[in-house]
């Protein structure tokens, strides 16, 4: 059981974190403070401001956060719980101005949300194999859909507020237990930090930017964002349960095919299929208003699952990025989450009241993302362009590898190196770090008696086998 302790606790903690955010933002229990503060504009903006402030702080001061992490581990959840309570009672007290209490509460609660996401992402990236990390993220999203339906359908308004106040402390308990779980890294090469991760970073950073735009747009402009309620076609307890199970099933299936099965694909193209499926959902969402009956319900389940998939994609990319060079989770999550928060604020401020124009906006944004994905694919193709030697050179690889006593692993590297493959390509194909590939190449050159790739190609073409060079 301890082997899966971190995976399970992070899944439960992250699911409850999403439940907390949904109760805070959408549940009837908080309808009174929202209605009483309607003059201040969209409360979601202030929540995002809290997220953005802490994200920027983590990105700018990652070492400081690492040093004080054990203190913040318990302090920030307490502050988040207090902020939730302050927002809930802001309009029911007269000692302080209600606006000040409410805004302070929602901002510090938003900061607490950012803290938890960074904490859980770091745990998965630093201790779990990729399969368990993705499984934990997807399980949390699927479980969240069910729990939100359960809590909002069963609990009274006051009970929902009480649960929201207690959730940051409950989530901290799961985080505490998760930290004491065992590591489950099954492939040391897969998780070994790269000695030179610059090439990999050049490949992953553009994908982070596209993922940020995708998840921000999906969260704002789909039925699970600001223009509607999730699964609003599934009324009644039984119907809502069926819809939630359907969303979970679609999410798990898509995540398995688009994320888990592609963990050993080339980094430059690993997440492209997921981007394309999400873009398809944008266009489907833009036309969904004309659907009726079973088709409308099925479409709503699919789009809701896609919203969850966009989050799973975003956090899977975060875990991958942290792994590349054992980067600080505070730096990686701070930068990516900060960009996401900033874009979300722009989306809310400018597009919240668009109404029927929403569909046109979805199509325009989807078109922009399509262009970005096409550019990204073309860019990756250009960066990984290979010069394949003549057939004579390729045909003699096994012969030369055997003649010069290359080890099985060195032979694998040599086979691809002789095709003109880059270190990054070989690293992705063999699921090892670029530093490990570099070491193998050095050994290969020594055994072949050459000083670089051109001399290796000369050897392959010369017909010499054992001659010293």
Structure description:
This protein has 469 residues and is an all-alpha fold. It has two domains: 2-382, Up-down Bundle (Growth Hormone, Chain: A); 391-462, Winged helix-like DNA-binding domain superfamily/Winged helix DNA-binding domain (Arc Repressor Mutant, subunit A, Orthogonal Bundle), CATH 1.10.10.10. Helices cover 75% and strands 0% of the residues. It is built from 21 helices and no strands. The chain has helices at residues 5-26, 31-36, 43-60, 62-67, 69-89, 98-127, 130-154, 157-179, 188-191, 198-221, 237-258, 272-287, 293-324, 329-351, 358-383, 391-395, 397-403, 408-417, 423-430, 434-448, 453-462. The chain is elongated, with a radius of gyration of 25 Å. Residues 399-464 form the HTH luxR-type domain.
Which secondary structure elements does this structure contain, and how are they paired or packed?
Layout: H1 5-26, H2 31-36, H3 43-60, H4 62-67, H5 69-89, H6 98-127, H7 130-154, H8 157-179, H9 188-191, H10 198-221, H11 237-258, H12 272-287, H13 293-324, H14 329-351, H15 358-383, H16 391-395, H17 397-403, H18 408-417, H19 423-430, H20 434-448, H21 453-462
Helix pairs in contact: 1-6, 1-7, 1-8, 3-6, 3-14, 5-6, 5-8, 6-8, 6-13, 6-14, 7-11, 7-13, 10-13, 10-14, 10-15, 11-13, 12-13, 12-15, 17-18, 18-20, 19-20
Organism: Gordonibacter faecis
Keywords: DNA-binding, Membrane, Transcription, Transcription regulation, Transmembrane, Transmembrane helix
Protein name: Helix-turn-helix transcriptional regulator
């Amino acid at each position: 059981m301890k082997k899966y302790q971190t995976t399970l606790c992070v899944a439960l903690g992250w699911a409850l974190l999403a439940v907390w955010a949904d109760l805070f933002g959408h549940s009837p229990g908080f309808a009174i403070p929202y209605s009483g503060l309607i003059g201040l504009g969209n409360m979601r903006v202030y929540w995002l401001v809290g997220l953005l402030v802490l994200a920027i702080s983590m990105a700018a001061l990652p070492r400081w956060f690492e040093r004080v992490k054990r203190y913040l581990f318990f302090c920030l959840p307490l502050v988040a719980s207090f902020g939730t309570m302050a927002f809930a009672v802001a309009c029911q007290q007269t000692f302080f101005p209600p606006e000040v209490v409410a805004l302070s509460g929602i901002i510090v609660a938003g900061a607490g949300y950012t803290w938890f996401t960074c904490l859980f992402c770091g745990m998965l990236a630093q201790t779990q194999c990729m399969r368990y990390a993705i499984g934990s993220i997807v399980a949390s999203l699927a479980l969240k859909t069910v729990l939100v339906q359960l809590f909002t359908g069963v609990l009274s308004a006051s009970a929902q507020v009480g649960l929201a106040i207690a959730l940051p402390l409950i989530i901290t308990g799961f985080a505490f237990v998760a930290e004491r779980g065992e590591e489950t890294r099954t492939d040391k090469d897969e998780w070994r930090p790269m000695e030179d991760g610059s090439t990999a970073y050049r490949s992953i950073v553009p994908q982070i930017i596209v993922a940020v735009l995708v998840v921000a747009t999906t969260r704002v402009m789909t039925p699970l964002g600001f223009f509607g309620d999730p699964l609003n076609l599934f009324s009644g307890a039984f119907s809502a349960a069926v819809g939630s199970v359907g969303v979970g099933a679609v999410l798990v299936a898509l995540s398995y095919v688009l994320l888990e099965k592609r963990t050993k694909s080339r980094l430059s193209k690993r997440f492209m299929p997921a981007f394309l499926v999400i873009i398809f959902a944008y266009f489907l969402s833009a036309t969904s208003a004309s659907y009726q009956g079973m088709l409308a319900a099925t479409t709503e389940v699919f789009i809701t699952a896609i919203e969850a998939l966009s989050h799973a994609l975003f956090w899977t990319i975060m875990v991958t990025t942290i792994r590349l060079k054992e980067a600080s989770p505070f730096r990686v999550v701070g930068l990516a989450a900060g960009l996401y928060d900033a874009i979300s604020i722009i989306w809310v401020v400018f597009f919240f009241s668009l109404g029927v124009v929403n569909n046109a906006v979805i199509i325009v944004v989807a078109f922009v993302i399509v262009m970005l994905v096409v550019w990204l694919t073309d860019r990756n193709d250009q960066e990984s362009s290979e010069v394949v030697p003549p057939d004579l050179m390729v045909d003699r690889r096994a012969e030369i590898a055997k003649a010069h006593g290359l080890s099985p692993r060195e032979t694998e590297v040599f086979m691809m190196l002789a095709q003109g493959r880059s270190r990054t390509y070989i690293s992705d194909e063999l699921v090892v770090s670029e530093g490990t590939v570099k070491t193998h190449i050095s050994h290969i050159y020594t055994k072949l008696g050459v000083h670089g790739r051109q001399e290796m190609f000369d050897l392959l073409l010369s017909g010499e086998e054992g001659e010293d060079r």
